[in-house]
Design a protein that fits this description.
about 210 residues; nine-stranded antiparallel β-sheet; alpha+beta; 9 strands; elongated
C-alpha cells in the first residue's frame, strides 16, 4: 500500500498581513481626525451664528468708545475747579472730557468715566460702565445732565494702556497709567475679556487721540 501525503496550503488572500492592518488603522485615524475637526468647526460656526445680538452689542460698544476717545479734549477746555485733574487713567478706569455726543444727547463737552463695576455674582463677572456729565453745553440754557450707562454685561476683565511721552525726558512708550492731565497721551488701548463659555469676542482697540497736546 502506498500512502501519499499532501501539504495543505492556505490561499495567500485568506487574511491580512500586519502591514495591511497598520495601513488600515492609520487611514481610520486620519478619517476620524478629519471628522472631529469638521464637527468642531461646524459647532463653533453655529454658536457664532446663533448670537448675532451679542456680537452687535460688542460692535456698537466699540464704535461708541472710538467716537468718545477720538474726540477727547485737553483739560484746559473745561471750566471746572478741578480742571487739572480731568484726564486721569489707570489699567482699570479712565476719566476724560469729550465732545462726542450720541443722537439723543445735548451737544457740548462731557466729562466721561469708563470703568468696570464690582463683581455682581459668584463668577466674578462685572459690567462695563460709562458715566457722563454735561460740563459745557453748546446751548447755555441746557440743563446739567449726568447719566450712567451699562455698555456690556458679563465682563471678566479689562486692561487699559496709554501710549505717549509723559515728559520730554522720556521716550514715547506704553504705560499702564497716565497721571499727566495737562499732557494727553497719543493713543489709548482697551482690551476686554469674557468668560470662556461666552459667545462674545473683543478685538483689542487702539484709538489715536485727535487732540493730544
Amino acid at each position: 500500500m502506498k500512502i501519499t501525503c499532501r501539504q495543505h496550503r492556505w490561499p495567500q488572500d485568506a487574511g491580512f498581513s500586519i502591514l495591511e492592518m497598520l495601513v488600515a488603522l492609520s487611514l481610520l485615524a486620519i478619517l476620524a481626525t478629519m471628522l472631529f475637526t469638521g464637527l468642531r468647526t461646524g459647532r463653533l460656526a453655529l454658536e457664532r451664528a446663533g448670537s448675532p445680538e451679542s456680537e452687535l452689542e460688542v460692535a456698537l460698544t466699540q464704535s461708541r468708545l472710538h467716537g468718545l476717545l477720538s474726540q477727547i479734549h485737553p483739560a484746559k477746555t473745561s471750566n471746572a475747579p478741578d480742571a487739572n485733574d480731568v484726564f486721569v487713567g489707570d489699567a482699570g478706569a479712565v476719566r476724560f472730557v469729550s465732545s462726542y455726543t450720541a443722537q439723543s444727547q445735548i451737544s457740548g463737552l462731557y466729562e466721561c468715566r469708563l470703568f468696570l463695576s464690582s463683581p455682581s455674582n459668584r463668577n466674578g463677572q462685572r459690567r462695563l460702565v460709562l458715566t457722563q456729565r454735561l460740563r459745557r453745553p453748546n446751548n447755555a440754557s441746557a440743563p446739567v445732565l449726568q447719566t450712567q450707562t451699562t455698555l456690556l454685561e458679563g465682563v471678566a476683565g479689562m486692561r487699559i494702556r496709554y501710549f505717549g511721552q509723559p515728559d520730554r525726558m522720556q521716550s514715547a512708550t506704553w504705560f499702564s497709567s497716565w497721571r499727566k492731565p495737562d499732557h494727553l497721551p497719543q493713543a489709548i488701548e482697551i482690551a476686554l475679556s469674557f468668560e470662556p463659555q461666552s459667545r462674545r469676542s473683543w478685538h483689542t482697540m487702539i484709538v489715536h487721540l485727535r487732540l493730544s497736546d
